[in-house]
Amino acid sequence: MVSDRDIDRLYQLPLGEFTGVRNAMAKAAGKSGAAIKALEKPSVPAWAVNQLYWRHRRAYEKLNRVSERVRAGHAQALKGRKIDLATLELQHGAAVKDAADEVRAILARAGDPATPATMKSVIDTLQALPGGGEPGRLTKSLAPIGFGAFGALMKGAASSKALAEVVTFAPSKPKPNEVAEVAQRADDAARKRLRQLEAQSKRTAAALKAARVKFERADAIRAAADAKLQDATAEANRLRAEVSRLEREARTQNLERENLAPRHPGRR
Question: What are the structural domain ranges in the chain?
Fold first, then answer.
């Protein structure tokens, strides 16, 4: 019998193990195996965001709370209430960045390249949270909520708790340096990431240079070995021809000797 906990564990596995374990679960599930077999393997960005939920729940839930506050703030603003949306958006951007950094580290540990295309899909998905399916079981990247869909979402999605939080969280008069502090933190984080990338780039360039030297050396050894092999092959062919010639001469001489032997019995 396959439980929800078993399915949760399936979505926590390394992505390369998903299909094999899912099929084994389906086989063991008997009559309900078809439903298990139908579980779709996540894309790389969806899998990475799932791991954020399973392994870094605090960052995941923080992002969800801030996202709910932003949506509730917009809902209140649409009703004419004065809400500090700029602060809310900055807080949401910072939470998305923190979550994206965690996801980038998850991908690095898993050996998956955090390519620009992958990270764009990751960030789009993070910006769309909460929503898009059961947490921890995403199979595809999510698209950020557009303004057209936002109004419909606000009719019922913003909870009374979220509305209460946004009123508390976003006072009509923001703290004097709050926006600047958030922007400074984001700038500091970007500078830190830039330094990391520069250091990684230098290490990669050094490793590439060393690899090229080793390759050129190995290629030269291979070329020399090829030349020796060609020379050895030519010499072997020459000697083979010489052996064949001498064998023919030996056979001819033996035949001639055998023919002459009866005529001169005293000769040996």
Answer: 4-37, 44-174, 216-263
